Amino acid sequence: MIGKRRVMHDRVLVDTSAWIAFFRQADHALADKLKSLLRTGQPVYAGLIATELFRGARSKKELDVLEGLFGSIGYVETKEEYFRDAGELGRLLLHKGITIGTVDLLIAQIALANDIALLTLDTHFGSIARHAPLRLY
What's the CATH class of domain 8-131? Predict the structure, then answer.
């Protein structure tokens, strides 16, 4: 490969909530941040995030936009061990009185395992970050 290869910790896993706000233009500060990340090639996605976005698409046009997006940014594989690790993370949090949904536990685990910052509007990821080394962007 010619040039410098970008290491994973420079990437940003963009959560469903951030993409929805971006596409609906609901948060101008987030939109500016995400546009900047897109220019530098830093955003990545995971299969669960794509599933949530495709599920919520309201039209063929929105589906086409998502296809274009996911064809232009990096993909982070969900490895088999992430499922077990996400379950352990959920158990740890539950013992601290914090309940997080399975999908969000897995998204957090994908970010943790790959040393990727997570861009999200969901506040419960902050609860995870207080008890695990999850980096929020």
Answer: alpha beta
